[in-house]
Amino acid sequence: xxxxxxxxxxxxxxxxxxxxxxxxxxxxxxxxxxxxxxxxxxxxxxxxxxxxxxxxxxxxxxxxxxxxxxxxxxxxx
Length: 77
Hints:
The chain has one domain (2-76). The protein is 40% helix and 29% strand. It is built from three helices and three strands, in the order αβββαα. Helix 1 runs parallel beside helix 2. The mean pLDDT is 90.
C-alpha cells in the first residue's frame, strides 16, 4: 500500500521522503521545489500499526495539496 501511495503522490507532484533510523520512521512531504511541508516521526518505541505511514501521508497530502490531481481524484470517488 505504501509504495502504491507514494507513486500516486509523485505523479501528482507531491514528493515523499521516508527515512528509517534508530528513532523510528521519519516521513516528510515536500512540494515540487523540495520544500518540506510536513514531517512526522513514527517512533520505534511504539509498535507500528498497520499502514500508519500510508494513512498519515494520505491525510496530509489531501490537506496540504487540496488542488492536486491526487486530491481531486479522491473527492470525485
